[in-house]
Amino acid sequence: MKKILTAIGNPILNVSLKKENEFEVMAEDIQYQDGIFEFLEKEKNINFLILSELIPGNLDIKKLIDKIKLINNSIQIILFLANENKEIENYLYAKGVNYIFYNNQIEIKDVIQIIKTDKNNETLELKQKIIELKKMLEDKNDLEEQNKISIKNKTETKNEKQEENKTEEKNEKLNRNLIYLLNNKIKEKLIKNINKIFFRKKKIKEKTEEIICINGTSGIGKSIFTVNLAKAINKNKILIIDFDILNNSLHTILGVKKYSEKTINKIENNSNEINIEELIIKINSKIDLVSGVNFLINSKHVNNSIKNILDVLSQKYDVIIIDTSSEIYLDYTKEIMKLCKFNIFISGANLLEIAKTKKLLNIYVNKWKISRRNFNILFNKYDFNSIDFSILKNIFSEFNIIGKLYTSSNYNLIINENKSGKLNKKLQKEYWVIYKNLMKINNKDFNY
């Protein structure tokens, strides 16, 4: 069983490793450099150390590795560097640090695979080459033996002896060269195979442009729409972000707890220590939820904070859907709308809701300076008493119209029974049509 120690300042990897039967995680994630030295002095049999350059301490990464190798020279180190630096990389390779990655370049599952990777294939290949080498040498020795017998049968003249000596010298030189060449070939092949497994750079996933912002008047059904849209979209990885901090209800609709007691204490006591990974709640194999991202936002730098969060998350997910608040005094709602490629504004289809929609859109367009063409209008809870759809399209002719959703009895069922499973076929088709219309209107390259 491989003994592993983590020191990256983030407990998530440590927790994931503990779930693997082949590993023995020796301690909680170490948070500072001196803690690494203290543990390695006590425990000499650590196989893998997973280390971040950013771990707090007085030593730079070169001196840190030197000291670790001085304590345990045989330890395998998986290292995460903050920035690309070939000079440091070459130094670390020379020190035996074979697994070097940059932040956000590798996922937890890949780290686990590196540790699990069995080198038996390379060992078997090396053994096979050695067997082949031995056979070649045996064949050569047989040939030499035959030559010796042949020479003995001849008259031992001075010239014959000289010729025999020359042959022996040539054979000995050939033998040395053969061994040298074969050893080098074996070594090169082995290094090449190891490099293929361990030194290939992980291809960084391209950022998704499918970041969809859901906004609209209060009580119109933004949260239910957000959840159902995520279920209807045929994508592998979807993230829902609940940015409606005043009335956030997505965790209730999806039937999950917000966060662990430990994370809640972090949020309440010191939000600066919260990592975005800690706020991701897994709903199923396709959908994840973040319900407290507002705690990561620096109120003095709202725009940069939101942009940085979306930049990180957009590399992990195919689609991000953001449920926002209808309150106009929240600065980050404005910034989210400006950063998202797709804005869906949900309105009702009666006179009261239309008046509220007009008022809110007027603020977004005239005060927040967001283009009318950035808004895609969807009419929710539509029924036979609603205003005729052709009239609605005429009223909102300056905006993109992506469709209407009929009133459904399933809405209450979804909320009351925390239904986070699949949609029925009829409802899924309605939402898929909405999504397809959104893509076609806003993205000419969209094809389905």
Question: Can you describe this structure?
Answer:
This protein starts with a strand and ends in a 6-residue tail after the last helix. It has three domains: 2-116, Response regulator (Rossmann fold), CATH 3.40.50.2300; 120-198; 211-442, Rossmann fold, CATH 3.40.50. Helix 2 runs parallel beside helix 3, helix 8 crosses helix 16 (425-442) and helix 11 crosses helix 12 (331-339). The chain has 448 residues and is an alpha/beta fold. It is built from 16 helices and 13 strands.
The largest sheet has its strands arranged as 8-9-7-10-6-11-12-13
**How far apart, in Å, are the first and last alpha carbons?**
49 Å
Radius of gyration: 33 Å
| Overall number of structural domains | 3
Main beta-sheet annotation:
8 strands, mixed
Structural class: alpha/beta
The total of helices stands at 16
Beta-strand percentage?
A: 15-25%
Low-confidence stretches: 118-125
CATH level 1 name of the largest domain: Alpha Beta
Sequence of secondary-structure elements: EHEHEHEHEHHHEHEHHEEHEHEHEHEHH
What would you say the CATH architecture of the largest domain is? 3-Layer(aba) Sandwich
Question: Which fold name is given in CATH as the topology of the largest domain?
Answer: Rossmann fold
Q: Mean pLDDT, as a whole number? A: 78
User: Roughly what percent helix?
Assistant: 40-55%
Q: What's the SSE blueprint?
A:
Elements: E1 2-7, H1 11-18, E2 23-25, H2 33-42, E3 48-52, H3 61-71, E4 76-81, H4 86-94, E5 99-102, H5 108-116, H6 120-153, H7 158-198, E6 211-216, H8 222-232, E7 238-242, H9 250-254, H10 261-269, E8 280-282, E9 287-290, H11 302-313, E10 319-323, H12 331-339, E11 342-347, H13 351-367, E12 375-382, H14 389-395, E13 400-406, H15 410-416, H16 425-442
Parallel strand pairs: 1-2, 1-3, 3-4, 4-5, 6-10, 6-11, 7-9, 7-10, 11-12, 12-13
Antiparallel strand pairs: 8-9
